[in-house]
Fold this protein.
Amino acid sequence: MGIMNVENFIGSVKVTDNAAFIENTEKRKALHESLKLKSFPKVKDEEWRFTKVDSIFDKAYMIPSIDKDFTIEKYINAKDYAGVVCYKNGFVIKIEVTDLNFIIEPLSKIDNSFDNIFKTQEQVFVELNNYFAVGGVNIVAKKNAIISKPLLILYIIDKDNVISSPRNVINIEGGANVSIEEKILCNSKIESLTNALSYINIEPNATLNYYKIQTGSDICNLFDTTYIKQQADCNLNIFTLSLKGRFLRNNLRIKLDGNGANANMYGLYIPKQNEHVDNLTYIEHAMPNCDSNELYKGVLNDSSSAVFSGKIMVCKDAQKTKAFQNNKNIVLTNTAKINTKPHLEIYADDVKCSHGATVGQLDEEALFYLRSRGIAKDDAKQLLINSFIDEVVNNISYEPIKDYVKESISQKI
Amino acid sequence: MLEINNLRANINGKEILKGLNLKIKEGEVHAIMGPNGSGKSTLSSVIAGREIFEVTAGEIIFHNKNILNLTAEERANEGIFLAFQYPIEIPGVSITNFMRAAVNAKRLYNKQEALSASDFLKLMKEKQKLVELTTSLVNRSVNEGFSGGEKKKNEIFQMAMLEPSLAVLDETDSGLDIDALRIVANGVNKLKNPNNSYIVITHYQRLLDFIVPDFVHVLYDGQIVKSGTKELALELEEKGYDWIKDEYHNK
C-alpha cells in the first residue's frame, strides 16, 4: 500500500455499523478535517526516533459490530475485583460494580478537557481514538472511599484485523484510596490494533494505584496514551508492565498540578523474539514540594527492541522538587537492541533531581559464582534476571497482582 | 581422589599453567604457595571450570573421572567446591534462596528428593553456627554490603552446606583479621574428615598454623616446582621465594 497518510488510513478502515460511534456525526466531521492535516509520526520526530509505525498503519483494519457474547470467568475471577469494565473489540460489553464507591457509566460524549494539558506529538492518536471510539467509560471513585480490591478494566481482542479505541475518563475524588488494574488480552489470529486513551484526574489527598498489565499476543499492536493530572497532596503509583505484545508504545504524561503531589512510576518490559516496546514518559512538576520517582527496567532477549524516553520537566515555580529517574536494562543477546534517553529539564533553583540509565549484560562473574555452587546455567540466569526484575515487581502492593505478574514473567523468560 | 596430569591452560592466548602435576588422596590437606602471578588462582579457576580459561593439554581426574569436559555446575555437583578469593556480590538474590537452589541442585544430581523447607532451614541454622554467621546476614542478598570477613565466612558456610569432597580455598585468609581468620579456620577444621580433601592456596604461613597441611607445594611459572611437608612453608616464610626461583632457572 505504500506509505500511508492519515486520511487514507481513515478511509481504509471498514466500518460495520456507523451508528456505533460515541461521537456524533458533526464532531467526527470536524475530527476528520483535523486529521486530514496530520501525519503519522516519522523517525525524524524526536519522540519517535526509534519506533517506526508505518508497518502498523499500512494494513486494512475493521470495526466489527458489537458482540456481547462473553464469559468473564474464562479470563478472570470477578470476585477478586471491586468492579469490572470489559471492552471487547473496542465495545464496552460489561460494566459490573460490586463496591458502590465506584461509579461507572458508559461514556456518551467525549470530554476534551485534558487535550490541552499536554501538547504532544501523539495528538494524532488522541484524535484517531476520538474518531473511531465505539466504547468508553466514565469512572468515579467516591470521596474518601477506601477500597482494597482493584477495579478491573479489561480489553479483549478476539477478532482479526480489529482496530479498537477504548477510552477511559477517570476521576479519583478527594481522599479516596483505590486501585485500578488495566489488562489487555488478545485472542485474534491476525494483527489487531488497539489505540487506547485514558484521562485520569486525582483530587487532593487521594491515592491511586494503577496497574497496566500488557499481556497481548505476538500479533497485537498497542498504542496506549495515558494523561494524568495530580492535585495537591495526592499519591500515584503507576506500573506499566509490558509482558507481551508484538508492538507496544506507551505514552504516559503526568502533570503534578498541586502542592505536595507525589508520583511513583514503575515500568517493566521483557520483549522476546521480534517484539518492540517503546515507553515515553513525561512528568511535569508544575507546583512546589512535589516528589516523583521513576524506575523502568528492561530485559531484552532474541532480536527484540525497546525504547525508553523519559523526561522530567521542573517548571519555574516548582521549588523543593524531588525528582528521580532511572532506566536499567539487561540485554541478553547480540541482536537485541535498546535505545534509552533519560532527560531532565529544570527551571527552578531549589530542587533535588537525578536521572540515569544503564545498559549491560548479565554479570558473568555472578553467573559463574552461582554455577560454581551447582546451579545449572539456565537456572542461574533466571535467578539473576528475577533479582533484577524484582526491584520493580516488589513495589506492587496488591499481592494477587504481584503473583500474577511474577507468574507471567516466569512463563515468558 | 584428585590427579592433575600435565595441565596446561591459557587465558586470552597467554599460557598460565605450563604442565602442572598434582596428586591428592582422601583426607589430605595440600597447601599451594607461590609468588604473585605464578598461576595459583588460575589453577583454582580451572579446577572449578571457569570457561574463560582454555585448557590446552593434560587432564584432571577426580574420583576416577576426567572432569575437563564437565560444566562448572556439574563439577560442583560431583563434589568440588571453590571458596572464592573475591566473593561476588549479587544484589536481590537472598542467601537462603541461593543456597536452597544449590543444595537441591546437588540433591537432584544425586537423584535425591529436594529438601523440605523446614529441613532446609534446620540445615541452614546448624551450618551457620559453624562459622558464627548471624541470621540477619543470611536473610540478606548474597555478599551485598558484607565486610571482607563476612564474605569469607559466607564462603565457608556455603561449603558446609554443600559438603564437598574437594574444597579449594583460594586465599581465604586474605583481608581477614586474626579473629575472623580463627573463625574461618575453625570452621574448616570442623568440616575436615577422612573422606574430604583440601587445597589451601595462600601467601602466608599464618593460615597454615590453623589449618595444618599434610603437604606444601610451591607453584612458580605455571608448574609445581617444589613439594614438601609443612616445614617447607616455614622455610618460605623465612627465606622468601628467590632461592626457589634461582633453583628453577638454574635447572
In short: DSSP finds seven helices and 22 strands in chain A. The helical segments of chain A are 6-12, 25-36, 54-57, 123-132, 364-371, 377-393, 399-412.
